[in-house]
Amino acid sequence: MLEDKNPQRTSLEQLGEFGLIDHLTKNFEIKHKSTLKGIGDDAAVFDHKQQTVLTTDFLIEGVHFDLSYMPLKHLGYKAVMVNLSDVYAMNAKATQITVSLAVSNRFPLEALEELYAGIALASKVYNVDLIGGDTTTSTSGMLISITAIGEAKKEEITYRSGAKPNDLLVVSGDLGAAYMGLQVLEREKEVFKVNPNNQPDLSPYSYIVERQLKPEARKDIAELLKQLDVLPTAMIDISDGLSSEILHLCKNSKVGCNLFEEKIPLDPTVITTCEEFNIDSTMVALSGGEDYELLFTIAQNDFDKIKGNPNLTVIGHMTEASEGAHLVTRANTKIELTAQGWNSFKSND
Ligand code: ADP
Ligand code: MG
Fold this sequence. Notes:
The strands form three sheets. The protein has a seven-stranded mixed β-sheet with strand order 8-10-7-11-9-12-13, sandwiched between helices. It has a four-stranded mixed β-sheet with strand order 3-6-4-5. The protein contains eleven helices and 13 strands. By secondary structure, the protein is an alpha+beta fold.
């Protein structure tokens, strides 16, 4: 996983900036009518009939990703997912992206081709147009900034601020897998440093490693909620861990929350890997981060519409703000929720 499998190296200087941009973007097709002008002018032009949402994220080598176990194709894919997840968290349809890159000359053209292969795959699968970006050099490492643009009907946009007391708190998918995948990859990296001939067997961990290296943004959930005729009262995506996102919803909506530990959805691989690493699985779900699931609140009346759906789990309910935000444990004790994961659990955001 860590060796250089791609011996061919074409230096970026050989192409020059414009040659490089052309080369990397030539196979991207414009799919949306709303994209009037994509790459190739001073600015892109698009025409949304509905309201426009826009979000941007930075990914920095050594802070947000480690190329010793993150294949560049996956990095490109993930960089797009991180942004699309924010668009879906607004209950909007993602339509366009821009990609800005700063790379040092240690990267050959072939590396950037890999990165763009991941961006191209994500754009295809998630149906978004690449409409521009910027390319420059960095003195060390790689920095990627992606901006995602989307559209939504004014009345369908879900802010963090709409949750009411007694609303149900719902999460898509399961939690904690990306964090445990990272723990496995970090461990294998250390093993590899000591013994480079040791090929790790990651097959027992394939689900959690994939959740770390190739997350999927929950485009399907926004579509599912429309089908079910459920409009969330508030929504956020889970990038920093469940507790921190719940606290954002509470603060912005001026409500409190009871989260039930026994309801938190965990994949069996997360449970067994937590046992192996001697980490508490609830802590991992609360503080691990990078799950890119959607966390939202719905009116109690809508419960029947989502009941039993395998993609959705009711994990708690909102309360008056004066009651605070709490985790109700399996032993039925109440612990105040804190965003402790932010500082103590991981070294980046
Ligand atoms: P300008 O100098 O006017 O900012 P650039 O030469 O930087 O323009 O970019 C030329 C075109 O290529 C623009 O449409 C820009 O959006 C696009 N572009 C630049 N870098 C990238 C990139 N890394 N990925 C996608 N498009 C890019
Ligand atoms: Mg430019």
